[in-house]
Amino acid sequence: MFNFEFYSPWFLLLFVLFIPLFIRDVSKQKKKGIKVPTVKNMEGSSGIVAVLFLLKISKYLILSALIIAMARPRTFTVSQDRDDTKGIDIMLAVDVSLSMLAKDLTPDRLTALKDIAIKFVEKRPNDRLGLVTYSGEAFTKVPVTSDHQVVIDELKNLNPLELQPGTAIGEGLSVAVNHLRNSKAKSKIIILMTDGVNTIENAMPAQVAAELAKNNDIKVYSIGIGTNGYALMPTQQDIFGDLVFTETEVRIDEDLLREVAQTTNGRYFRATSNSSLEEVYNEINQLEKSDIKVSKLYNYQEYFKIFLWIALGMLIIDALLRWVFYKFLS
């Protein structure tokens, strides 16, 4: 996106000087008038009148071009200069299985997660983030990027019905690891979120994915989402295709999530409410501090030369017209 500015806008105040100059010309015209008796009845006299008018305003055009040139109009673009080797790359691996619509968080687990994860992204302006979703299979929504708005937009659009049913924790973790393993960031983090247990037998085991993360210096923070006891969960669909919710026991494989975190030198958290989930994200935000410094680079395109050429061109035209016109009258 191009932005426009004047480097020295105060020079534009010189246009105020046009006021007395204009008043002087008007008063002079009232006193003397414009007498062109020798051309009044000539053919093409309208062209001569146009030349006279151009000669009258030429000084204003020349001065205007010079003033604008001194104010230095220019456009600029802004880019960021950052050393990615000093930042943190964070991949969010989000369980989007149907049970994430359970209503033990307000209004449900997935919506609560979206809101809190978006706040987390907004608090990491200097880090690159990405997003992986998984249920019975895993899918990369956003590779690690510094364009946080893309991550936020995809978080808002999380849909528990877009992937195969089930919960394959190891698949979600391994896909996230695959995206981070070649990163040159000083720190590589995966935030692994789930509300259940692994239900896909032939999927990548979570322990194997955790070893892959460890071998690639990737730390995993795992989060178990769901209250203790029972919660309203979607268990079937009625004849109209609407979800039917039933009180079901909450089952989270905390031992597995804790093992994954410990293997990678990370931590396991349990979030049983909206507030505790937000506290988890805030704690992770405090644990992983980025020391990357982002500087802005301004790329300018100057236009003052154009107006200098306009002023020079008008000056030459003015001189030629005066010479030709007065020579013609003489």
Automatic annotation (TrEMBL):
DNA-binding as UniProt keyword: no
Highest taxon, organism lineage: Bacteria
Keywords: Cell membrane, Membrane, Transmembrane, Transmembrane helix
Transmembrane segments: 6-26, 47-71, 306-325
SUPFAM superfamilies given in the database record: vWA-like
Coiled-coil stretches: none
Keyword Transmembrane helix: yes
Domain (VWFA) ranges: 89-284
Name recorded for this polypeptide: Ca-activated chloride channel family protein
